[in-house]
Structures are given as structure tokens and as C-alpha cells.
Amino acid sequence: MVAFLLRCWRLILLFGIAYPLPFLGIGQPTELAPDSFACELQCLQDSSDFYFSIQLDSALAYATRLGALASAVGDSVFEMEALMRKGLLNLWMGNMELAQANLENALRFEQGLGSAQIKAQSLRALGNLYVFQDSRLEGLEYYRQAEELIPQLSDAILIGRIHFGIADLYFTQRDYATASEYYHKALEAQQQVGDSIGMAKAWLNLGKLAIQFDSLGMARQWYEAAGEVFSEQGNNFWLGTLVAHMGKLLVLEGQPRSALASFDSALVLSEPYYNVWVQLTSWHGKAEAYWQLGNYAEARKFAQQEIAKAIEIGEGSRLLDGQSVLQRILISEGRLREALELADLQMALSDSLQRVESLQEVQWLEGKYQRQRERDSLTYAQHAEVLQLKKDTERAQLLNKVTLWGLLVVLAFLGAFWFTLVRVRRARKHAQEQEQISREQAQDIKAQNDLMEEQQAKIIQQRDQLKDSNEIKNTIFSIISHDLRSPLSSLNNMVVLLQSGVQLSSTEMDKILNQLGGSVKGLLHSLDNLLRWSLNQMEKPYTVQPDDLKVAALIKESELFFAPLFLAKHLAVQGLASEECLRVFADENSIRLVLRNLISNAIKFTPRGGQITLGATTVGDQVEIWVEDTGMGLSDELLATLFRGYVDSKLGTENEKGTGLGLSLCQDFVHMNGGEIGAENTEQGGARFWFRLPMVNVQAATLSNGV
Questions:
Q1: Which of 679, 607, 690 is nearest to 636 (CA)?
Q2: What is the pLDDT of residue 691?
Q3: Is 114 helix (H, G, I), strand (E, B) or coil?
Q4: How many CB atoms neighbour CB 177 within 10 A?
Q5: What is the pLDDT of the chain when averaged over all its residues?
Q6: Is 72 helix (H, G, I), strand (E, B) or coil?
Q7: How far apart are CA 393 and CA 365, in angstroms?
Q8: Phi-psi region of 705 (alpha: psi -120 to 50; beta: other; left: phi over 0)
Q9: How remote is the C-alpha of 178 from its chain's centroid?
């Protein structure tokens, strides 16, 4: 109810403003305060803008109300806005005379307000109006005037539309080079504001130009780019126009059937908008396509439809296009007499159109001359009056300037004296304040430095902890890859062998079961060691616990651990070590992982039927333990980077996988135990990996054991 009463009161005010009522005490419109109606004016303008693109009649009604209210309260800016909007709306609704009157009145308002934006919009709209009336030269003149205002404009969309209009006019005059220049300017303006529809329109027009330059491939690229935007935005009006252009391109490429499908789609998309251009273009294109297919009856039907529509709307150029394709159809049908008569008619029509264009050009020049005379029609008396008024104004301005400068000089002297006095006092006070601030800042800086040093120490500590955690993670991954993955593969091979149904003797079965049991125990032992080591690393970095180790026992244990994998790849294994004599002082768990890692790599890169040799010997006061294979060997590049952190893992001879961290981990463990590690190629072409550890008791011996 309250909203209804407010609405009625607003209407009463609006009615009273538009038609002053003496009995209500409302005087002349110029006596009203415009600020009190700013909200109403803005609401009317917003309503007109809202309906601008969806309901032209409603938009025009709101624009009319806006103009009436603005005129009543004396708001020239809103009145000019209303005139410009009414002009554009009448133009789009086909009311050419009203549109011209509205836009010319808007231009007259602009001369008093100096609004380049409104003037440019009005000039562009007048250009469109004259183009619709086939007065292209006059339309181009208005567009040129709008172009001169571009340096004063900030609306990139309006700038792009001005360039679009000029480009379209040059395109119709077949000045394709100039048209291309302005289409690119329009594209740049739309790109500045990210207007996707505007950019798509520019691409569409550049595609049209590419066809004129016989660049059909480039035209297709422009069309496809524009089509993606129109489809994404759901703009069926421009999508229908684009599909019609694509049909014309397909006709030029000699694809008549695809062209027919495009023209059908264009007609369906454009049906709600009554797009006459799409209709004429589609009918013309269908006539061309059916003519290429040899279906002259259908071609003639669509050519006649184009001619009839062109006559209905008075479009002479499209009438010539329809007659041209109909003439080719008649020639193909052998109806030469009718084709000749049509050619004579076409020539006469072309001459008539040229005469009309010449007459329009003469009329435009006469109109331009008349308008110039009207602008220059001031009388001598008016000129003299203007000059005298200008002199009086300049004299008054000079007197005002002299008086003002005198006052300014006196005030300057007084101000300088007062300013100097105040400045001296403030300088003393400021010096004391600055001294106090400096002491406080020094204390703050010291406190901040102490805090930063404390934070930096914490950051360094956290960095070290993260580094240790990352090293632990890499170690765990490497151990899982080499000490757990390999025995699991061995177990899988034995299970596959048992599942295959191969008949085995009880002795063979016992042997396999013993190997399975040993592998499972070794796997559980490795997993237990890994878990115990991992839990220990969560508290502190890994530390070795060296002890007296027998090298031969360690090698023998590793041979048994990998026995299933040796058997699966039919690898011969030879162990060389001294069980009684060779002992090292090292951590058992870490050295076991190193040896198994090297054996796992040897199995991985040794082909089926090859040989792996394990051995140990003394080198000075150290024991060298080595693993040699008959595999593919190592490249020089790989040898140079083998122990430098992560190495890209290669597939084995039977596609075995690894993590690429094993050798780096081996190097870390060997160094922790006070040893060194290395690799080299053998003369037979394989690889030899070795590591040396401190010796407990140096005795030379050799152990021969074949597996």
C-alpha cells in the first residue's frame, strides 16, 4: 500500500512538472530545483536502457518520459540523452524522419554542453540513418565527423562501432584495402575492453574481405573463430549471418552439398529475427549450389525467389545478383534467347542504378553546399555585435586580473611573514619530536632485529628438519624398490610356476617350498628392518652401528635371498670370498642393503642365461666387495652421473622396474661406514660394481662356490 501511494505521488509530481498547475502552487519549470528529481531522471534512463535490447516500444516510451521530465526541470544533459536514445530507437524501428529530427536536435544540444560522447553517438546514428536511405556519401560524412571525435572518447565499444560503420561503407564501395584497415582498427578497440561479440563481428568481416582477396583458407579461419564465440554466447542472430557467409565460402570452394546444409541452418537460425540479408544470401547461394549440382529447376526457383524479394524491398544490387545467376542457369539449360533478353534487362537496370547513384551524389553535394551556406549566414551586424561583445569581455577580464593580482601581492607579503614565524616555531618543535622518534625507532629496530634473528634460526632449524625428512623418504622408497620388490617378484614367479600345473617331483616340490619359505623369511626380515629403521629415523637422522662382519657369510646370505630370481632368469652365479678370513668393521643392516641393491641391479640388467659373479678381496687395509655381470654395460655419460642423487630408472632386460634412488642410497650407506663405492665396465662388456670397507683382519683367501 505504501509503495502504491509513493508511486501515485511520483506520478502527480511528474504530471505537475510537465504541465504546471497554478492551483497547486507550481510555477514555471525553470524555477524548480533539478536535484530533487535526479533519482526520477536516473530511473527513467535506466529503464530505457533495460528495454533497449529486448523491447523497443517500451524503451522508446521511457526515453520519451525522460525527455519530458528533463525539459520540465531544465536538465539539459538528460534531455540530450533522451533525444539521442529516441533517435536510435526510431532508427531501428524504421521511423527515419523522427530519428533524423531527434538526432539533429541532440547535436544542437551538444553544442552547448560539449559532450563528445553524445555527439559521436548521434553522428554515428545519423550515418546509419543515411546508409539505410542509400545515401552512402552523406552517411560517410557523418561517420567521418564521428571519427574526428575519437581522441576525446573513452568508450572503446563506441570507437569500434564507428570504425565498423566506416569499414562497411568502404566495403560496399569495393575499396577493400581501406575497409581492411578500419576492420582491424575496430578489432583492436573491441580487444581493449574484451568484447567477445565485437571481436567476433570483426573476424566475420575480415573473413568477407579475405574472400575478396581470394584467400579462402584465411576466410575459413576467420569464420571458424567467429562461430565459436557466437555459439558460446548463444547469439543466433549473428550465428545465422555467419552460417550464411560460410555457405557462400563452401560454394566458392566447390562444395555445393555442404553449402546447401549451411544455408538451411542459416534460414532456421535467422527466422525469429526476419533477417532479410540472410534470406537473400541463402536463396542466392542455394541457386549457385543447385546450379553446380546440375539441378537447374531448383536453382531457377531460388534465383526467382531472390529476384522477387529484391524487387519487394527495392534492393537494386541484390536484383542484379539474382538476374546474374538466373542468366547462367538459362544458358546451362540451353534457353539462350531468354538469357539474352535477361542480359539486356540486366544491363539497363545496371545503367539505371548508376544514374541513381550519380544523382544521389549530386544531391548530396548540393545539400552539403546549402548547409555550409546556412552555417556562414551571419550578417555583418551580427559579426560587429559579436566583436564588440568580445572586446568588452576582454576589457572586463583584464581589469579583474589587475585587481586580483594586486590583492594577491598584498596577501603574499602577509602570508610570507606569518609563514616564516610559524615555520621557525614548528621547526624547533619538530626537531624535538624527531629526536624522540629516532630514539623510539632505534629501540624498535633493535627489537625487530632480535625477533628476525630468532625467526631466522627457527627457519634454518625447520629447513634442516625438512631436509632430513626428505632424505628419510628417499631412503625408504629405494629400499622398498630393491629389497622388497625383488623378492616379491621371485615369489610371484614361483607361484605362477605352481599355478601353471607343471608336474613336479616331490624333491622338486620340496626344493621350491624351501625356497619360498626362505624368501618369505628374508622378506619379513627385510620388512622388519625397514620398519625399525624408519621408526628410528622419525626421531633422529640415521646412524650406523658398526660391528665385526664376516664378508663370506654376508655374500652367501644374499645369494640365497635372490636364488628364486636367479632360477627364474636361468642365471649362473659364482661367489668368490674367504669365509674364514675376510671381515669388515661396518653396520650389518646398511651393508646388507647395499649388497642386495647391487645384486638386484645385476639381475635386472643381465639377459636370460647370463652369469653374475660375487667376490671379495683385500685392497690395502680395506676389503673390496664386488658384483660383476655379463649385461649391457654402462655408457660414459651414465658412469659420470651414476652416484649423483636421483638417476632416471631404466627398464631391465625383461622390463623390470626401479626407483632411480638405489645407487645414491648405497653411496650414502657406504660413506656412513667409512668406505667408498664405484663402478666400471668389464672387458667382456658387462658392468662391475664395488665398494670398500675398513678391514678387521687382513688375510688373503679365496672361496669358490657355484650356484
A1: 679
A2: 96
A3: coil
A4: 9
A5: 75
A6: helix
A7: 39
A8: beta
A9: 31
Please enumerate, as own/partner, the contacts of 127-135 that have beta carbons within 8 Å and a separation of 24 or more. 127/165, 128/91, 128/165, 129/91, 129/96, 129/99, 129/100, 129/103, 131/165, 131/168, 131/169, 132/91, 132/96, 133/96, 134/360, 135/360, 135/364
Distance CA 656, CA 298 (A): 70
Contact 248, 211 (CB under 8 A): yes
**Cell, residue 561:** 635371498
Closest CA to 97 of 71, 130, 58: 130
**Rounded to whole angstroms, how far apart are CA atoms 66 and 86?**
10
3-state secondary structure of 656: coil
- Residue 462 makes CB contacts below 8 A (sequence gap 6+) with none
Query: What are the cell numbers at 244?
Result: 550464411
- Asked if residues 283 and 295 have their Cβ atoms less than 8 Å apart, the reply is no
For the residues 589-599, what does the mean pLDDT come to?
88
pTM attached to this predicted model: 0.41
Asked if 110 and 102 count as a contact pair (C-beta separation under 8 A), the reply is: no
Q: How many other C-beta atoms are found inside a 10 Å radius of the C-beta of residue 157?
A: 14
Q: Within 10 A of 155 (CB to CB), how many other CB atoms are there?
A: 14
Alpha helix positions (H), 253-295: 256-270, 276-293
**pLDDT given for residue 16 in this prediction:** 39
Q: Which residue has the cell 531544465?
A: 74
Torsion of CA 660, 666, 667, 671, to 10 degrees: 160
Helix axes 196-212 and 236-252, enclosed angle (nearest 10): 20
d(CA 437, CA 254): 85
User: Exposed, middle or buried: residue 595 (CB in 10 Å: 0-12, 13-18, 19+)?
Assistant: buried
List CB contacts of 625: < 8 A, sequence separation 6 or more: 551, 554, 555, 595, 615, 616, 690, 691, 692, 693
- The x, y and z cell numbers of residue 654, run together, are 625383461
Rounded CA-CA distance 444/148 in Å is 60
* Distance from C-alpha of 153 to C-alpha of 119, rounded to nearest angstrom: 10
Cell of 409: 601581492
CA pair distance 472, 542, nearest whole angstrom = 8
CA 432 to CA 377: how far, in whole Å?
75
Do residues 51 and 58 lie in contact, with contact meaning Cβ atoms separated by under 8 Å?
A: yes
Distance of CA 217 to the CA centre of its chain: 25
The Cα 370–Cα 629 span in angstroms is 105
Distance of CA 88 to the CA centre of its chain: 35
Q: Contact, 3 vs 11, CB < 8 A? A: no
pLDDT digits (tens, 9 = 90+) for 48-65: 766 665 677 888 888 888
Question: How buried is residue 410: exposed, middle or buried, by Cβ count under 10 Å (0-12/13-18/19+)?
Answer: exposed
**pLDDT > 70: percent of the chain:** 72
Q: Does residue 676 carry a pLDDT above 60?
A: yes
149: Cα within 13 Å, side-chain hemisphere: 25
Note the helical H segments in 296-379. 296-313, 316-332, 336-375
Contact by Cβ (8 Å): 575, 556: yes
